[in-house]
Design a protein that fits this description.
The structure is a single chain. With about 180 residues, the chain is α+β, with helices and mostly antiparallel strands. The chain folds into two domains: about 30 residues; about 130 residues, Muramoyl-pentapeptide Carboxypeptidase, domain 2. It contains seven helices and four strands, in the order αααβααβαββα. A hairpin with a 7-residue loop joins strand 3 and strand 4. The protein is globular. It binds zinc ion (ZN). Zinc ion binds next to strand 2. GO terms for molecular function: carboxypeptidase activity. This is D-alanyl-D-alanine carboxypeptidase-like protein.
């Protein structure tokens, strides 16, 4: 809904600008830095995960910069204990997330059903650049045990591979698991 109204407002401003009656100015939007992060796409895929060929290991370079630094610290800590982590999915743009949602609508037959399985762009922590899906599950389990020291926590009961970064976790500990990201 927010996306639709934002695009609508931009289209209106652009149309007025084209008539020459209005000077185009960028109207500051609350949370604009996050909005920019949300337009940055992540890799569509990556090299095969050397631990398990069912997964890939995407370059994590498009994560929010502080999250990328935290990710590198986590990976180094894991490596120090002989554990390799593969990023099966990391950063997505709004557009990439919207495409995943559209695919789910096709697969499940309605937006209502799709929304039980896939988040809209405004809701996904992958779009905000703070989430990674870690595979294989043995590696994810290591992160679940050790990630909090680096600000990484599992968040959902139904996604043992999905971790989110928040520096506050290092002092508060991980929050209780939620049943799922979609609330279904
Ligand atoms: Zn995820």
């Amino acid at each position: 809904m927010l996306v639709a109204s934002l695009f609508g407002a931009l289209a209106a401003v652009t149309a007025l600008g084209a008539t020459g009656r209005m000077v185009l100015v960028w109207v500051p939007v609350v949370g604009r830095p996050i909005a920019i992060v949300e337009e940055i796409p992540g890799p569509e895929t990556g090299p095969v995960c050397p631990l398990d060929a069912r997964y890939v290991d995407e370059p994590a370079v498009k994560l929010r910069p502080d999250v990328l630094a935290a990710w590198q610290r986590l990976r180094t800590a894991a490596g120090g204990q002989g554990v390799q982590l593969c990023v099966n999915d990391g950063k997505r743009s709004r557009e990439q997330q919207a495409r995943q949602f559209a695919d789910a609508v096709q697969q499940f037959g309605s937006a209502e059903l799709a929304s039980k399985y896939v988040l809209q762009p405004d809701e996904s922590m992958h779009v905000r650049g703070i989430a990674v899906d870690i595979q294989p599950l043995a590696s994810a389990a290591w992160v679940e045990r050790n990630g909090v020291a680096h600000g990484w926590c599992r968040r959902y009961e139904n996604e043992p591979w999905h971790f989110e970064y928040d520096p506050a976790y290092t002092t508060s500990g991980c929050p209780a698991l939620l049943p799922s990201a979609t609330g279904s």
